[in-house]
Amino acid sequence: MHIVFAFILALTIFLPVASFAQSADVEAKISKIDTDKLTIMLDDGKSYQVPEEFNFEGLKAGQKVIVFYTVVDGRRVVDDLQISE
After folding, report:
1. Which residues are the signal sequence here (predicted)?
2. In whole angstroms, what is the distance from residue 5 CA to residue 8 CA?
3. Each residue's pLDDT tens digit, 14-58
4. Mean pLDDT throughout 62-85?
5. Domain extent listing, the chain
6. Between residues 39 and 13, which one has the greater pLDDT?
7. According to the model, what pLDDT value does residue 79 have?
């Protein structure tokens, strides 16, 4: 009985940790903007998905930005983007 209780306790402690999405940020230059696919490609060679309501105004290739993103189902989804100087 103690083993079962310990197993259930361990499971409740560690299971929620596995469900958290991985958040990160990157500072790079924009290499390509695709408003149709709602993606921004950075000079790190990676593509970042933006939400439908994202405002592309003022962004252009070659511009340095800081992108805050979350990895969801293997895709990098932009949470916030700041123009860097």
Report:
1. 1-21
2. 5
3. 555 444 567 899 999 999 999 999 999 999 999 999 999 999 999
4. 93
5. 22-83
6. 39
7. 94
Q: What is the CA radius of gyration of the chain?
A: 19
Q: Both tokens of residue 44? A: 């790190």
Position 54: which residue type? Answer: F
Q: Which residues contact 51 (CB under 8 A, 6 or more apart)?
A: 38, 77, 78
**SS3 of residue 81 by DSSP:** strand
Nearest to 83 by CA among 23, 52, 53, 40: 40
Q: DSSP letter for 51, please.
A: -
* Distance in angstroms (rounded) separating the CA atoms of residues 14 and 10: 6
